[in-house]
Amino acid sequence: MYIHWITEHIAQGPKPYGNEYQDLVNNGITHILDLTEFSATVQDEITTQLHIIHEYIIDFQFIPYTQVEKCCQIIYDILEQPQHKLYIHCWAGIGRSSTILWLYLIGCGIDPELAKNIIKTANRAATPGNKSLSDSSHISCIKAYAADHGWSKSTPRL
Q: Residue 47's domain spans which residues?
């Protein structure tokens, strides 16, 4: 399994299967944010090493603002702990996961184009800001949400 490290604490890519969960653990991943339709069935010994959060986002449809806020807050909360490392995925690791991650980076104060470049540098197949999933209103939404929740005052490590 190839893991796309976006930052020191955030990785992104496709849905893992079978032994790939152990690969994630071996790479220091402590948390998984699963954006797919079905939550994973994972071996018990892996679930003691990984905290898996399932937040289904419908593929190829405009992401509701409430889901953007919820997913970005989940990421923020996970990364408040310096020892945590997150793997965020959808089925192919192209659209949903890169778009949510892009919006999170924007919420943390990173310029939208720079955030896209950061993600695309690590994962050339990614489509952060995918037009079937988001538009400029999502940028306004996450910036307002981040400001209302004090992210600019205490942005966790990226």
A: 4-149
